[in-house]
Design brief:
The chain has about 230 residues and is of the alpha+beta class. It has one domain. It contains seven helices and twelve strands. The protein is globular. The two termini are about 25 Å apart. Bound molecules: fe (ii) ion.
Amino acid sequence: MALDPFVLQNPQICVVDAFEALVGFHFEKGVNAVCWPRDLEGDFAEVVNRLDVPQGITHLTEELLHSLDLSPAGQKAIEVMLADMERLRERALLPTLDCVNGYTHEIESPVRTDVCSFHADSATVQADTWLCTYHGASSEGLRNDEVICRVDVPETREELRQWHAQEDDMPFEEWLEEHFYTLHYAPQPGAVPFRFGTGNLWRIALQYPGSPVPPCIHRAPDPVPGEKRLLLIS
Ligand SMILES: [Fe+2]
């Protein structure tokens, strides 16, 4: 599958041609996402169709995948996913394979803090997020100059202040962080998201103290009823 042209035009993304280049890349000079584009062999749709999973996110084990009754193309898809898992584990990462069948979150507060809202991942120590969508709609991202932190939007900030006043006696700024509101972003007018695409393996920068680059702002696609996604995340 061809790369989204917005990926190629985005100065914050570096496209590489091998796994080693993805691993060895140093985030600097504002580049906060690296993509290894791939056309994968295998029938991932068949795997998804054979999975009987409840609503929400199901972690797929190797045993479960091997228990599926699949054609050779479906088997190939499983081999590809397990090989990706293995190469990330060899790098001391902890990948999971997930089947996403909608989300079970409920949106109550004035600011969304779910994975379908543009956000930065965060950690307390140096780390990054690895991501590959094998089947279904892929994640999407925005350049940092195309977003505004939701807590910096005056109307939102005011709503949050009122919400905070009813709820908590923790200092406001601390409360914003505690509830992850500072990690969520609104697109600026005219912002055009880039799609991560299916099959491509991505490594994106997250927010942690001392990070040399701003975090990559991204989101999971809105769920489509009846459509399951298959993805790797670490
Ligand atoms: Fe995320």
